[in-house]
Amino acid sequence: MPLDVSKQMIVRRLPGADLADREDSGMTKPFRFGVVAPLMGDVPTWRDRAHRVADSGYSTLLVADFPQTQPAPAPMLATVAAITDLRVGTWVYASPLRPAWMTAWEAHSLSVLTEGRFEFGIGTGRPGIEDELREKGVPVLPPSERLTQVGEAVRALRELDGPGRHTPVAMAVLGPKARALAAEIADTVTFALGPQPRAEVARLAEDFRAVPDIELALAVPVIGDALAAHMAPPWTDPAALRAVDAVTILPDDPAAAIEEIQRRREEMGFSYFIFGADFAERFAPVVAALDGK
Asked: Which residue has the higher pLDDT, 169 or 26?
């Protein structure tokens, strides 16, 4: 049964508004684009890539939370914010890897140091994270407790921010409890997708489209037949994604991608699109055509 998050959250976000008011208020958000840019080689090359991402018109540079495969997210993002005018963000912090208060402190610190250009992405952890937690001696909590950690981290962040600052929160969700929490506390919502067909993703997005101040984001880890690092597992099959009309893949032709991105906003409400860094320059024409529109 789909979860009707819009009706419960409209009370918090738009007191007194009825469904007709919401439908008339203009739900379409302007396009913006982000890039997940892991540090896979030497630092100067990665810094140069950050400059090229900024020059190509992208809104945000994002890094994943993969301990020991690259430097920690906070110093990476602070570095990018210092050398470019990009917004920066985590895509996404894994809640079980740190105490909630530590995650919140790190996020608030980034918000301060970047002068408001940090976006706090958080989720309960990628598939298979349980083995990584055991290797690191971190307690393996059930998904419900990891989701509680997400809520605790965001509440702690709001306390640290105080009344004069609002650090945007992006949540990666899938199940009904996670979607309900995101409707309550998130500014941006993305779905932790695998090979779900387009129709299933449309149903997930539908509840959030009635809430005007929630942005729907779509990470696209596969372009053509190529996979983005730190966005898709290596066993991802592009042909299988195309077979089910999945939204986690785009054609590698920029003109065709532009048409498909516009379709996804019109049909499902996605306005924030995230690509892998290896595709950033190839898709610069996509950003030039659609950003801010």
From this structure: 169
Partners of residue 190 on adjacent β-strands: 172
Average pLDDT over residues 94-105: 95
The residue to which tokens 């906070």 are assigned: 74
Beta bridge pairs of residue 223: 226, 250
Neighbouring-strand partners of residue 60: 34, 87
Residue recorded with tokens 């958000």: 29
Strand arrangement, sheet containing 249-250? 226-227, 222-223, 249-250
Q: Cα 279–213–289 angle (5° rounding)?
A: 35
**pLDDT (0 to 100) of residue 137:** 87
DSSP string, 74-114: HHHHHHHHHHSS-EEEES-EEGGGS-HHHHHHHHHHHHHHT
Four-CA torsion 280, 286, 289, 291, nearest 10 degrees? -60
| Residue 18 pLDDT > 60 | no
CA atoms within 13 A on the CB side of 88: 29
Report pLDDT for 68: 67
Whether cis (ω within 30° of 0) applies to the bond prior to 154 is no
Strands in the chain per DSSP E: 32-36, 60-63, 87-90, 93-94, 118-123, 169-173, 188-191, 215-219, 222-223, 226-227, 249-250, 270-276
Mean predicted lDDT score pLDDT of the chain? 89
CA 89, CA 73: separation in Å to the nearest integer?
Answer: 9
The pLDDT of 22-43, averaged and rounded, is 81
